[in-house]
Fold each of these.
Amino acid sequence: MQGPRIISVEANSASFFSRNEFLIRRLHSLTGLVPVGAYMCIHLITNASTLGGAPMFQKNVDLIHSLGPALPIVEWSFIFLPLIFHAVVGVAIIRSGNPNLSSYHYVGNVRYVLQRATAWIALAFIAWHVFHMHGWFHNEWWLENVANEDLGGHRFDPKHAASTAALALEAPIRKLAYFIGVVSCVFHFANGLWTMGITWGVWTTAAAQKRANWICGAVGIVMTVVGLSALVGVAKTDVVAAQAYEDTKLQMKQEEEQRVAAENKRLSSLTAEERLAERKAREANH
Ligand code: HEM
Protein backbone atom coordinates (compact mmCIF):
# COMPACT_ATOMS: atom_id res chain seq x y z
CA MET A 1 0.00 0.00 0.00
CA GLN A 2 2.84 2.41 0.94
CA GLY A 3 4.72 2.14 -2.39
CA PRO A 4 2.07 3.36 -4.88
CA ARG A 5 1.06 6.27 -2.58
CA ILE A 6 4.68 7.58 -2.45
CA ILE A 7 5.00 7.32 -6.26
CA SER A 8 1.76 9.22 -6.85
CA VAL A 9 2.81 12.02 -4.44
CA GLU A 10 6.14 12.34 -6.30
CA ALA A 11 4.41 12.32 -9.67
CA ASN A 12 2.00 15.06 -8.56
CA SER A 13 4.77 17.24 -7.21
CA ALA A 14 6.74 17.01 -10.45
CA SER A 15 6.32 20.05 -12.70
CA PHE A 16 3.87 19.97 -15.61
CA PHE A 17 6.89 20.27 -17.93
CA SER A 18 8.73 17.25 -16.53
CA ARG A 19 5.56 15.12 -16.45
CA ASN A 20 4.88 15.81 -20.14
CA GLU A 21 8.44 16.44 -21.28
CA PHE A 22 8.45 13.89 -24.15
CA LEU A 23 5.34 15.32 -25.83
CA ILE A 24 6.21 18.98 -25.14
CA ARG A 25 9.74 18.57 -26.56
CA ARG A 26 8.39 16.98 -29.73
CA LEU A 27 5.77 19.71 -30.16
CA HIS A 28 8.49 22.30 -29.57
CA SER A 29 10.66 20.67 -32.21
CA LEU A 30 7.79 20.33 -34.70
CA THR A 31 6.61 23.96 -34.31
CA GLY A 32 10.22 25.09 -34.99
CA LEU A 33 9.89 23.52 -38.47
CA VAL A 34 6.18 23.98 -39.20
CA PRO A 35 4.63 26.46 -39.07
CA VAL A 36 7.30 28.79 -37.59
CA GLY A 37 10.32 27.79 -39.72
CA ALA A 38 8.29 27.39 -42.93
CA TYR A 39 6.62 30.77 -42.33
CA MET A 40 10.01 32.41 -41.72
CA CYS A 41 11.28 31.13 -45.10
CA ILE A 42 8.16 32.34 -46.97
CA HIS A 43 8.35 35.71 -45.18
CA LEU A 44 12.02 36.20 -46.12
CA ILE A 45 11.34 35.23 -49.77
CA THR A 46 8.43 37.72 -49.93
CA ASN A 47 10.62 40.48 -48.48
CA ALA A 48 13.40 39.67 -50.96
CA SER A 49 10.96 40.61 -53.73
CA THR A 50 11.65 44.28 -52.82
CA LEU A 51 14.67 43.69 -55.11
CA GLY A 52 12.20 43.41 -58.03
CA GLY A 53 10.94 46.96 -57.36
CA ALA A 54 7.81 48.52 -55.81
CA PRO A 55 5.28 46.86 -58.24
CA MET A 56 6.52 43.34 -57.55
CA PHE A 57 6.61 43.80 -53.75
CA GLN A 58 3.17 45.46 -53.75
CA LYS A 59 1.73 42.53 -55.76
CA ASN A 60 3.04 40.01 -53.21
CA VAL A 61 1.80 42.05 -50.24
CA ASP A 62 -1.63 42.45 -51.91
CA LEU A 63 -1.80 38.68 -52.35
CA ILE A 64 -1.29 38.17 -48.58
CA HIS A 65 -3.77 40.93 -47.71
CA SER A 66 -6.38 39.51 -50.11
CA LEU A 67 -7.26 37.25 -47.16
CA GLY A 68 -9.03 40.33 -45.75
CA PRO A 69 -10.68 39.86 -42.33
CA ALA A 70 -9.39 36.25 -42.23
CA LEU A 71 -5.78 37.52 -42.11
CA PRO A 72 -5.60 38.14 -38.32
CA ILE A 73 -7.13 34.68 -37.68
CA VAL A 74 -4.57 33.04 -39.98
CA GLU A 75 -1.74 35.11 -38.43
CA TRP A 76 -2.68 34.18 -34.86
CA SER A 77 -3.39 30.47 -35.54
CA PHE A 78 -0.46 29.71 -37.83
CA ILE A 79 2.20 32.22 -36.81
CA PHE A 80 1.87 34.00 -33.44
CA LEU A 81 0.44 31.23 -31.24
CA PRO A 82 2.85 28.49 -32.49
CA LEU A 83 5.75 30.99 -32.16
CA ILE A 84 4.70 31.92 -28.59
CA PHE A 85 4.45 28.21 -27.73
CA HIS A 86 7.91 27.54 -29.24
CA ALA A 87 9.41 30.54 -27.41
CA VAL A 88 7.84 29.73 -24.00
CA VAL A 89 8.99 26.09 -24.16
CA GLY A 90 12.37 27.25 -25.54
CA VAL A 91 12.90 29.53 -22.52
CA ALA A 92 11.89 26.66 -20.19
CA ILE A 93 14.43 24.38 -21.93
CA ILE A 94 17.21 26.98 -21.62
CA ARG A 95 16.39 27.66 -17.95
CA SER A 96 16.19 23.96 -17.10
CA GLY A 97 19.91 23.93 -17.93
CA ASN A 98 20.94 20.33 -18.51
CA PRO A 99 23.70 21.55 -20.83
CA ASN A 100 25.38 18.17 -21.43
CA LEU A 101 28.34 20.06 -22.91
CA SER A 102 30.98 17.45 -22.09
CA SER A 103 29.37 14.91 -24.42
CA TYR A 104 29.76 17.21 -27.47
CA HIS A 105 32.96 17.79 -29.47
CA TYR A 106 34.22 21.41 -29.70
CA VAL A 107 32.16 22.51 -32.75
CA GLY A 108 29.10 20.81 -31.30
CA ASN A 109 29.60 22.81 -28.10
CA VAL A 110 29.84 26.09 -29.99
CA ARG A 111 26.69 25.25 -31.97
CA TYR A 112 24.84 24.31 -28.77
CA VAL A 113 25.70 27.68 -27.19
CA LEU A 114 24.89 29.58 -30.43
CA GLN A 115 21.50 27.82 -30.70
CA ARG A 116 20.61 29.22 -27.27
CA ALA A 117 22.15 32.66 -27.85
CA THR A 118 20.28 33.03 -31.17
CA ALA A 119 17.05 31.93 -29.42
CA TRP A 120 17.34 34.98 -27.10
CA ILE A 121 18.22 37.28 -30.02
CA ALA A 122 15.28 35.87 -32.06
CA LEU A 123 12.94 36.46 -29.10
CA ALA A 124 14.01 40.10 -28.68
CA PHE A 125 14.19 40.75 -32.44
CA ILE A 126 10.80 39.23 -33.33
CA ALA A 127 9.07 41.08 -30.44
CA TRP A 128 10.56 44.41 -31.62
CA HIS A 129 10.12 43.66 -35.37
CA VAL A 130 6.39 42.88 -35.01
CA PHE A 131 5.95 46.09 -32.98
CA HIS A 132 8.05 48.13 -35.44
CA MET A 133 6.19 47.01 -38.59
CA HIS A 134 2.80 45.78 -37.40
CA GLY A 135 2.28 47.48 -34.02
CA TRP A 136 1.20 44.16 -32.36
CA PHE A 137 -2.51 45.13 -32.05
CA HIS A 138 -4.70 47.16 -34.37
CA ASN A 139 -6.92 48.68 -31.70
CA GLU A 140 -7.34 52.46 -32.24
CA TRP A 141 -6.36 53.49 -28.69
CA TRP A 142 -3.26 51.27 -28.86
CA LEU A 143 -2.15 52.64 -32.24
CA GLU A 144 -2.58 56.24 -31.06
CA ASN A 145 -0.97 55.94 -27.63
CA VAL A 146 1.55 53.09 -27.83
CA ALA A 147 2.40 51.92 -31.35
CA ASN A 148 2.75 55.50 -32.58
CA GLU A 149 5.46 57.44 -34.42
CA ASP A 150 7.18 58.58 -31.17
CA LEU A 151 7.77 54.99 -30.09
CA GLY A 152 8.49 53.79 -33.65
CA GLY A 153 5.65 51.28 -33.87
CA HIS A 154 3.33 50.26 -36.77
CA ARG A 155 5.56 51.74 -39.49
CA PHE A 156 4.41 49.42 -42.34
CA ASP A 157 1.37 50.28 -44.46
CA PRO A 158 0.36 47.31 -46.67
CA LYS A 159 -1.14 49.74 -49.23
CA HIS A 160 2.25 51.50 -49.54
CA ALA A 161 4.40 48.41 -49.10
CA ALA A 162 7.78 49.31 -50.64
CA SER A 163 7.86 52.99 -49.64
CA THR A 164 6.89 52.41 -45.97
CA ALA A 165 9.26 49.41 -45.64
CA ALA A 166 12.10 51.55 -47.05
CA LEU A 167 11.28 54.46 -44.69
CA ALA A 168 11.00 52.12 -41.68
CA LEU A 169 14.52 50.84 -42.38
CA GLU A 170 16.04 54.18 -43.42
CA ALA A 171 18.17 54.64 -40.28
CA PRO A 172 21.46 52.66 -40.38
CA ILE A 173 20.90 51.49 -36.78
CA ARG A 174 17.64 49.81 -37.86
CA LYS A 175 19.36 48.15 -40.82
CA LEU A 176 21.99 46.83 -38.39
CA ALA A 177 19.27 45.53 -36.03
CA TYR A 178 17.56 43.74 -38.95
CA PHE A 179 20.89 42.33 -40.14
CA ILE A 180 21.62 40.83 -36.69
CA GLY A 181 18.01 39.65 -36.25
CA VAL A 182 17.73 37.96 -39.67
CA VAL A 183 21.15 36.26 -39.46
CA SER A 184 20.34 35.00 -35.92
CA CYS A 185 16.88 33.66 -36.88
CA VAL A 186 18.30 31.90 -39.95
CA PHE A 187 21.19 30.37 -37.97
CA HIS A 188 18.75 29.23 -35.26
CA PHE A 189 16.49 27.65 -37.91
CA ALA A 190 19.25 25.95 -39.95
CA ASN A 191 21.13 24.62 -36.92
CA GLY A 192 17.74 23.69 -35.45
CA LEU A 193 17.03 21.56 -38.54
CA TRP A 194 20.16 19.57 -37.70
CA THR A 195 19.19 19.10 -34.02
CA MET A 196 15.66 18.17 -35.16
CA GLY A 197 17.14 15.26 -37.13
CA ILE A 198 18.62 14.03 -33.83
CA THR A 199 15.37 14.63 -31.88
CA TRP A 200 13.35 12.61 -34.42
CA GLY A 201 16.04 9.98 -35.13
CA VAL A 202 16.41 10.94 -38.83
CA TRP A 203 20.23 11.00 -38.81
CA THR A 204 21.60 8.58 -36.25
CA THR A 205 25.00 7.46 -37.60
CA ALA A 206 28.12 9.69 -37.66
CA ALA A 207 28.18 9.54 -41.50
CA ALA A 208 24.51 10.58 -41.76
CA GLN A 209 25.09 13.45 -39.31
CA LYS A 210 28.02 14.65 -41.44
CA ARG A 211 25.83 14.65 -44.56
CA ALA A 212 23.13 16.49 -42.60
CA ASN A 213 25.73 19.18 -41.77
CA TRP A 214 26.03 19.92 -45.50
CA ILE A 215 22.26 19.97 -46.08
CA CYS A 216 21.50 22.22 -43.08
CA GLY A 217 24.53 24.42 -43.89
CA ALA A 218 23.24 24.89 -47.46
CA VAL A 219 19.74 25.78 -46.17
CA GLY A 220 21.38 28.30 -43.80
CA ILE A 221 23.51 29.93 -46.54
CA VAL A 222 20.63 30.16 -49.05
CA MET A 223 18.21 31.62 -46.48
CA THR A 224 20.85 34.11 -45.24
CA VAL A 225 21.34 35.38 -48.81
CA VAL A 226 17.55 35.54 -49.36
CA GLY A 227 16.96 37.26 -45.99
CA LEU A 228 19.69 39.86 -46.46
CA SER A 229 18.68 40.63 -50.04
CA ALA A 230 15.55 42.30 -48.59
CA LEU A 231 17.87 44.78 -46.85
CA VAL A 232 19.51 45.52 -50.22
CA GLY A 233 16.03 45.78 -51.81
CA VAL A 234 14.77 48.40 -49.32
CA ALA A 235 18.08 50.33 -49.46
CA LYS A 236 17.74 50.55 -53.27
CA THR A 237 14.08 51.67 -53.15
CA ASP A 238 13.41 55.19 -54.45
CA VAL A 239 10.80 56.21 -51.85
CA VAL A 240 9.27 59.07 -53.89
CA ALA A 241 8.89 56.96 -57.05
CA ALA A 242 7.54 53.99 -55.05
CA GLN A 243 5.00 56.25 -53.31
CA ALA A 244 3.85 57.70 -56.67
CA TYR A 245 3.34 54.17 -58.05
CA GLU A 246 1.46 53.03 -54.91
CA ASP A 247 -0.81 56.13 -54.90
CA THR A 248 -1.67 55.68 -58.60
CA LYS A 249 -2.42 51.98 -58.08
CA LEU A 250 -4.59 52.75 -55.05
CA GLN A 251 -6.50 55.46 -56.93
CA MET A 252 -7.13 53.12 -59.91
CA LYS A 253 -8.38 50.44 -57.51
CA GLN A 254 -10.73 52.90 -55.77
CA GLU A 255 -12.08 54.14 -59.14
CA GLU A 256 -12.70 50.55 -60.26
CA GLU A 257 -14.51 49.77 -56.98
CA GLN A 258 -16.69 52.88 -57.38
CA ARG A 259 -17.46 51.95 -61.01
CA VAL A 260 -18.50 48.40 -60.00
CA ALA A 261 -20.62 49.72 -57.09
CA ALA A 262 -22.40 52.24 -59.38
CA GLU A 263 -23.02 49.54 -62.02
CA ASN A 264 -24.42 47.14 -59.37
CA LYS A 265 -26.70 49.91 -58.08
CA ARG A 266 -27.93 50.68 -61.62
CA LEU A 267 -28.57 46.97 -62.34
CA SER A 268 -30.51 46.51 -59.10
CA SER A 269 -32.82 49.40 -60.05
CA LEU A 270 -33.79 47.75 -63.40
CA THR A 271 -36.83 45.52 -63.82
CA ALA A 272 -36.33 41.90 -64.89
CA GLU A 273 -37.52 42.78 -68.45
CA GLU A 274 -35.11 45.71 -68.73
CA ARG A 275 -32.22 43.52 -67.55
CA LEU A 276 -33.13 40.83 -70.11
CA ALA A 277 -33.37 43.42 -72.91
CA GLU A 278 -29.96 44.81 -71.92
CA ARG A 279 -28.36 41.35 -71.95
CA LYS A 280 -29.85 40.63 -75.40
CA ALA A 281 -28.56 43.96 -76.76
CA ARG A 282 -25.07 43.16 -75.37
CA GLU A 283 -25.10 39.69 -76.96
CA ALA A 284 -26.22 41.14 -80.29
CA ASN A 285 -23.33 43.65 -80.20
CA HIS A 286 -20.80 40.86 -79.63
C1 HEM B 1 12.25 32.61 -36.24
C2 HEM B 1 11.82 32.00 -35.17
C3 HEM B 1 12.26 30.60 -34.78
C4 HEM B 1 12.44 29.48 -35.55
C5 HEM B 1 12.25 29.37 -37.05
C6 HEM B 1 12.86 28.40 -34.69
C7 HEM B 1 13.15 27.11 -35.10
C8 HEM B 1 13.71 26.12 -34.31
C9 HEM B 1 14.02 24.76 -34.72
C10 HEM B 1 13.78 24.18 -36.10
C11 HEM B 1 14.57 24.14 -33.66
C12 HEM B 1 15.07 22.69 -33.57
C13 HEM B 1 14.17 21.81 -32.72
C14 HEM B 1 14.86 20.53 -32.26
O1 HEM B 1 16.04 20.55 -31.92
O2 HEM B 1 14.18 19.49 -32.20
C15 HEM B 1 14.64 25.08 -32.58
C16 HEM B 1 15.18 24.80 -31.33
C17 HEM B 1 15.16 25.65 -30.28
N1 HEM B 1 14.50 26.87 -30.20
FE1 HEM B 1 13.69 27.86 -31.78
N2 HEM B 1 12.92 28.87 -33.40
C18 HEM B 1 12.57 30.22 -33.41
C19 HEM B 1 12.50 31.08 -32.33
C20 HEM B 1 12.82 30.72 -31.03
C21 HEM B 1 12.65 31.57 -29.87
C22 HEM B 1 12.06 32.97 -29.90
C23 HEM B 1 13.09 30.83 -28.79
C24 HEM B 1 13.08 31.21 -27.34
C25 HEM B 1 13.69 32.20 -26.82
C26 HEM B 1 13.57 29.55 -29.25
C27 HEM B 1 14.15 28.58 -28.48
C28 HEM B 1 14.67 27.38 -28.94
C29 HEM B 1 15.49 26.46 -28.16
C30 HEM B 1 15.93 26.61 -26.72
C31 HEM B 1 15.82 25.39 -29.00
C32 HEM B 1 16.71 24.16 -28.69
C33 HEM B 1 15.92 23.02 -28.11
C34 HEM B 1 16.82 21.84 -27.71
O3 HEM B 1 18.01 21.89 -27.95
O4 HEM B 1 16.29 20.89 -27.18
N3 HEM B 1 13.37 29.51 -30.62
N4 HEM B 1 14.07 26.27 -32.98
Amino acid sequence: MNRFAWVLVLLLPFHPMLHPARSQAQTPPRKTPELLKQGKAVFEKNCALCHGLKGDGKGQLGATFKPPPNDFTKPLSEWPTTKGDMKKVFDAITKGVPNTSMVKWGHLSEKDRWALVHTVLEFSKPPAKK
Ligand code: HEC
Protein backbone atom coordinates (compact mmCIF):
# COMPACT_ATOMS: atom_id res chain seq x y z
CA MET A 1 0.00 0.00 0.00
CA ASN A 2 1.26 3.47 -0.68
CA ARG A 3 1.53 6.03 2.03
CA PHE A 4 -1.72 7.77 1.13
CA ALA A 5 -3.69 4.54 1.52
CA TRP A 6 -2.18 4.02 4.95
CA VAL A 7 -3.27 7.44 6.06
CA LEU A 8 -6.82 6.63 5.01
CA VAL A 9 -6.77 3.34 6.88
CA LEU A 10 -5.51 5.06 10.00
CA LEU A 11 -8.09 7.83 9.83
CA LEU A 12 -11.07 5.63 9.04
CA PRO A 13 -11.96 4.81 12.67
CA PHE A 14 -12.39 8.53 13.30
CA HIS A 15 -14.83 9.06 10.47
CA PRO A 16 -18.00 10.60 11.99
CA MET A 17 -20.30 8.40 9.87
CA LEU A 18 -19.06 5.41 11.85
CA HIS A 19 -20.12 7.03 15.10
CA PRO A 20 -23.74 7.98 14.59
CA ALA A 21 -24.43 8.48 18.28
CA ARG A 22 -21.46 10.69 18.75
CA SER A 23 -22.01 12.75 15.63
CA GLN A 24 -25.58 13.40 16.73
CA ALA A 25 -24.56 14.61 20.16
CA GLN A 26 -24.64 18.36 20.39
CA THR A 27 -21.28 19.76 19.49
CA PRO A 28 -20.33 22.80 21.49
CA PRO A 29 -19.94 25.85 19.30
CA ARG A 30 -16.52 27.42 19.56
CA LYS A 31 -16.02 29.94 22.34
CA THR A 32 -15.88 33.36 20.72
CA PRO A 33 -16.11 36.84 22.28
CA GLU A 34 -19.55 37.18 20.63
CA LEU A 35 -20.82 33.94 22.13
CA LEU A 36 -19.53 34.93 25.57
CA LYS A 37 -21.25 38.29 25.24
CA GLN A 38 -24.49 36.56 24.31
CA GLY A 39 -24.08 34.14 27.23
CA LYS A 40 -23.44 36.94 29.68
CA ALA A 41 -26.60 38.77 28.60
CA VAL A 42 -28.74 35.64 28.97
CA PHE A 43 -27.06 34.84 32.29
CA GLU A 44 -27.71 38.29 33.75
CA LYS A 45 -31.32 38.10 32.73
CA ASN A 46 -32.11 34.54 33.85
CA CYS A 47 -29.49 33.16 36.19
CA ALA A 48 -27.86 35.96 38.17
CA LEU A 49 -30.76 36.19 40.61
CA CYS A 50 -29.57 32.91 42.08
CA HIS A 51 -26.03 32.36 40.84
CA GLY A 52 -24.99 36.00 41.27
CA LEU A 53 -23.79 38.53 38.69
CA LYS A 54 -20.23 37.34 39.24
CA GLY A 55 -21.29 33.69 39.25
CA ASP A 56 -20.30 33.34 42.89
CA GLY A 57 -23.69 32.01 44.01
CA LYS A 58 -24.45 35.19 45.92
CA GLY A 59 -27.48 36.27 43.92
CA GLN A 60 -30.33 37.88 45.84
CA LEU A 61 -32.19 34.58 46.06
CA GLY A 62 -29.16 32.34 46.31
CA ALA A 63 -29.02 32.04 50.08
CA THR A 64 -32.66 30.98 50.36
CA PHE A 65 -32.10 27.62 48.65
CA LYS A 66 -30.97 24.27 49.94
CA PRO A 67 -28.70 23.19 48.37
CA PRO A 68 -27.55 26.68 47.41
CA PRO A 69 -26.69 27.49 43.79
CA ASN A 70 -23.17 26.59 42.81
CA ASP A 71 -20.38 29.11 43.20
CA PHE A 72 -19.03 29.05 39.65
CA THR A 73 -15.79 30.76 40.70
CA LYS A 74 -14.67 27.62 42.53
CA PRO A 75 -12.37 25.17 40.72
CA LEU A 76 -14.34 22.95 38.35
CA SER A 77 -13.54 19.85 40.41
CA GLU A 78 -15.58 21.34 43.26
CA TRP A 79 -18.75 21.96 41.25
CA PRO A 80 -21.17 19.63 43.01
CA THR A 81 -23.30 18.49 40.08
CA THR A 82 -21.20 18.58 36.92
CA LYS A 83 -17.55 18.94 37.99
CA GLY A 84 -17.40 21.48 35.17
CA ASP A 85 -17.80 18.87 32.41
CA MET A 86 -19.09 20.79 29.37
CA LYS A 87 -21.68 18.25 28.34
CA LYS A 88 -22.97 17.84 31.88
CA VAL A 89 -23.15 21.60 32.35
CA PHE A 90 -25.19 21.76 29.13
CA ASP A 91 -27.47 19.01 30.45
CA ALA A 92 -27.87 20.70 33.84
CA ILE A 93 -29.01 23.85 32.05
CA THR A 94 -31.24 21.96 29.61
CA LYS A 95 -32.83 19.54 32.08
CA GLY A 96 -32.34 21.22 35.45
CA VAL A 97 -30.80 19.59 38.53
CA PRO A 98 -33.15 17.15 40.33
CA ASN A 99 -34.13 18.00 43.93
CA THR A 100 -32.81 21.53 43.71
CA SER A 101 -34.28 24.87 42.72
CA MET A 102 -32.36 24.62 39.44
CA VAL A 103 -35.18 24.35 36.93
CA LYS A 104 -34.73 23.35 33.31
CA TRP A 105 -33.95 25.97 30.72
CA GLY A 106 -34.58 23.82 27.65
CA HIS A 107 -36.82 26.50 26.20
CA LEU A 108 -33.79 28.70 25.59
CA SER A 109 -32.28 28.18 22.13
CA GLU A 110 -29.50 25.64 21.88
CA LYS A 111 -27.10 28.44 21.00
CA ASP A 112 -28.12 30.38 24.11
CA ARG A 113 -27.53 27.29 26.24
CA TRP A 114 -24.06 26.70 24.81
CA ALA A 115 -23.33 30.39 25.29
CA LEU A 116 -24.32 29.91 28.94
CA VAL A 117 -22.05 26.86 29.24
CA HIS A 118 -19.08 28.94 28.12
CA THR A 119 -20.14 31.82 30.34
CA VAL A 120 -20.42 29.81 33.55
CA LEU A 121 -17.18 27.89 32.86
CA GLU A 122 -15.44 31.21 32.32
CA PHE A 123 -16.32 32.30 35.89
CA SER A 124 -14.11 29.52 37.19
CA LYS A 125 -10.97 30.92 35.62
CA PRO A 126 -8.75 33.46 37.30
CA PRO A 127 -9.32 36.84 35.62
CA ALA A 128 -7.10 37.27 32.57
CA LYS A 129 -4.01 39.34 33.28
CA LYS A 130 -4.14 42.64 31.46
C1 HEC B 1 -33.92 29.67 41.33
C2 HEC B 1 -32.48 29.77 41.44
C3 HEC B 1 -31.66 29.40 40.22
C4 HEC B 1 -31.71 29.94 38.95
C5 HEC B 1 -32.63 31.06 38.46
C6 HEC B 1 -30.73 29.26 38.16
N1 HEC B 1 -30.07 28.33 38.92
FE1 HEC B 1 -28.59 27.08 38.29
N2 HEC B 1 -28.62 26.12 40.07
C7 HEC B 1 -29.40 26.47 41.15
C8 HEC B 1 -29.24 25.48 42.20
C9 HEC B 1 -29.88 25.53 43.57
C10 HEC B 1 -28.36 24.50 41.69
C11 HEC B 1 -27.98 23.17 42.36
C12 HEC B 1 -26.70 23.17 43.10
C13 HEC B 1 -25.57 23.09 42.14
O1 HEC B 1 -25.34 22.03 41.55
O2 HEC B 1 -24.93 24.11 41.96
C14 HEC B 1 -27.97 24.95 40.35
C15 HEC B 1 -27.08 24.30 39.53
C16 HEC B 1 -26.63 24.77 38.32
C17 HEC B 1 -25.59 24.16 37.53
C18 HEC B 1 -24.78 22.93 37.92
C19 HEC B 1 -23.54 23.39 38.62
C20 HEC B 1 -22.74 22.27 39.21
O3 HEC B 1 -22.87 22.02 40.42
O4 HEC B 1 -21.98 21.62 38.50
C21 HEC B 1 -25.42 24.93 36.42
C22 HEC B 1 -24.43 24.72 35.29
C23 HEC B 1 -26.38 26.01 36.51
N3 HEC B 1 -27.09 25.89 37.66
C24 HEC B 1 -26.52 27.01 35.56
C25 HEC B 1 -27.57 27.92 35.56
C26 HEC B 1 -27.87 28.79 34.46
C27 HEC B 1 -27.05 28.90 33.18
C28 HEC B 1 -29.00 29.48 34.80
C29 HEC B 1 -29.75 30.49 33.95
C30 HEC B 1 -30.27 30.03 32.68
C31 HEC B 1 -29.39 29.05 36.13
N4 HEC B 1 -28.50 28.10 36.55
C32 HEC B 1 -30.47 29.54 36.84
C33 HEC B 1 -30.22 27.58 41.24
C34 HEC B 1 -30.61 28.38 40.18
